[in-house]
Amino acid sequence: MSNPFLMPVNTQTWANGRHIVRCVKVIQETWDVRTFCFMADQPILFFFKPGQFVTLELEIEGEPVMRSYTISSAPSVPYSFSITIKRVPGGRVSNWLHDTLHEGQELAVHGPVGLFNAIDFPAPKILYLSGGVGITPVMSMARWFYDTNANVDMVFVHSARSPKDIIYHRELEHMASRVDNFSLHIICEKHGLGEPWSGYRGYLNHKLLELIAPDFMEREVYCCGPTPYMNAVKRLLESAGFDMTRYHEESFGATPPEARADAVEQAEQAADAPEVDVSELHLVEFTASGKSIRVAPGETVHAAASKLGMMIPKACGMGICGTCKVLKLGGEVEMEHNGGITEDDEAEGYILSCCSVPKGDVRIEF
């Protein structure tokens, strides 16, 4: 047998790190949203926690660019994974992906990582609240529970601009028609001429939420969407007296900074900074390059590398995506991350350079 996917004995599992994958399918979900499906050439089981994300390593116009996207598929379909991307007017990466990425093309991905997931907070009753393309992580969760026949009562509430903007519409309706523990409710802000719509109209509010999910106070809530949407949902729940320790939202909402740091600008900022006693400086040594630099208290390992003209890959800059992971060979750092690194990686000495501040002299393998 020449097809490696017919020999599961050779199958490997996906580990957090860098992998080369190939685009095997492109699906037009709506007029401005596409799903890109990926596989590895050799069989890999893409296990992850539903709700987590990956970071794409791209080259656009000769420049390296990193962007993080939620995995929209479920680990119950393990030989591939998918991301669903909305074309954003003026968005450099989303437009490039829509216009350029095609079947057969290869790229590198980093991950999976993320604290926003359905595994770490088990609950018998779940309320999914999503707006626009924010549907992707909660769709991954819903697909997982649906595929695994989990004994979880799910209420899925999605808000879209209009009927033509409803992502995964047919699949959601199919899921709702097949099982009793998946209740689907879609709210459209408006509908145009020739767009028949008999569902809810307007915006989610307290009265509508009580109508859709009378027991919402008893449910674990997962929310993802544009920042104004999530803020409105939080205000709604807080005003109702909801236990916000049971509220979870996708925190990767801001537009990620460019992966390539501007070393010149950072140097200028450093020149304008208050003078620091030399005894307070910490030596950061990068062993692979043979370079080193002394940095002031509070500066990150990533900033130290940038000042030396070395660009450690970075996407979010907030300790979420895990792209900037490097191996610490010696010394101590203070690292405040947001789920971008696993406990196993930390035990092996890895750190996230974007949010790791040296507590003394440190040695980094880079």
From TrEMBL:
Q: Where is the 2Fe-2S ferredoxin-type domain positioned along the sequence?
A: 282-366
Q: Which cofactor does it need?
A: [2Fe-2S] cluster; FAD
Q: Provide the family line.
A: In the N-terminal section; belongs to the FAD-binding oxidoreductase type 6 family.
Q: Please give the InterPro entries that the UniProt record associates with this protein.
A: 2Fe-2S_ferredoxin-like_sf, 2Fe-2S_ferredoxin-type, 2Fe2S_fd_BS, Beta-grasp_dom_sf, Cbr1-like_FAD-bd_dom, FAD-bd_FR_type, Flavoprot_Pyr_Nucl_cyt_Rdtase, FNR_nucleotide-bd
* Top-rank taxon, per record: Bacteria
GO molecular function, one example? metal ion binding
Q: What is this protein called?
A: Glycine-betaine demethylase subunit GbcB
The UniProt keyword set, sorted, is: 2Fe-2S, FAD, Flavoprotein, Iron, Iron-sulfur, Metal-binding, Oxidoreductase
UniProt cross-references to Gene3D superfamilies, sorted A to Z = 3.10.20.30, Nucleotide-binding domain of ferredoxin-NADP reductase (FNR) module, Translation factors
Q: What sequence ranges are listed for the domain FAD-binding FR-type?
A: 16-119
